[in-house]
Design goal:
The protein has eleven helices and 15 strands. By secondary structure, the chain is an alpha/beta fold. 48% of the residues are buried.
Length: 413
Amino acid sequence: MAETRPEIDGERLLGDLEALARIGATPQGGVNRIAFSPADLEARQWVEEAMRAAGMEVRRDPAGNTIGTYPGREPGLAPIALGSHTDTVPNGGRYDGALGVIAALASVRALHAAGQRLRHPVEVINFVAEEATMGGGTFGSRAMAGLFDPASIHHEAVDGRPVAEHLRSAGIDPEAVATAARPAGSLAAYVELHIEQGGVLDKAGVPVGVVEGIVGIRRYTAVFEGEANHAGTTPMDGRRDALVMAAPFVLAVREIAVAHGIVGTVGTLRVSPGASNVIPGRVELTAEIRGLDEATLDAAEAALQARAEADGAAFARISAKEPVVSDPAVVAAVETACRDLGLAYRLMPSGAGHDAMCMAAITRQGMIFVPSRRGISHSPEEYTAPEDCVTGARVLLGTLLALDAALDSTGEG
């Protein structure tokens, strides 16, 4: 006799989202659960209790990540992991990260309610400090994936205190964080449901995004040296205004991004000396580009450098994160889940970084997006419709079932 297919309890899922949103709720309607704050720790404890109620064994690793494990049927198979994070930016939204954790919990609860176990164990992971409030984002997933930089514990958190101080207050030994690293192959796959945090799906009226990969991010400085002088006595034809020199480059960042099919932004301008009655003598700006293809990023970078130097600037790259392409087996499983549920979907990149980006270092990974109304995120105005939240969880469960059937004992498809 065939087993009954497990189903997401949509009403319970929405109730869980509401309960979690009350922890750290702000008067503006948002959520304030900055990593390691009392509200963050309370939310993590809430998740742990919900994991236990769903039949999972729960532990915290040395980085503070919460891991709930639902046993599988076949000994020796690596777990399939689902997860995201429950910390937020200051006065953030109630869906970013939280939906992925709640939907992962709902997927295991569906199995537990049906009395079913999969071939593989299932892990639900609530990563710690995903948001960039502790001197850099994806703290917990970097630790788990073996990408942790020990020097980062000495960086300043959003409140100016060292990260190590926050760790200790949360009962985490800063010197032991790196031991949270798991070896490659210790997980069969990792799948993360997340709100899009952009407006593509909402504008198109498409309920599901199948993430092809997470974009690479490159950041640069460009410094324009002019000559500071009196703004009232220096004739216009005798000026060397550094801000005027920089202006064409600011516009060029947009033009070059559009020409290469990527995104580009000038995010900061430091104008010196910075007085209304002084012609700017120096301008330092930061620019970034994001894209999924390294060759395209290379070409855009070359164009930016050529333009900056032609405009008289000193140009330098200050950081680079490589694109992370989703694993084909995970993408196929998400597509299978969408087809089985009769849902339209769109293949798309993620323009923001996520824990899945780090997990690619140790396992196959992929992501599922659901719409964000008007593309707003990191704000109390962040909103994903209840039906889209439930749809995302149904796709996540379907993906889990498809992967469990498709991956063999070695983790290969």
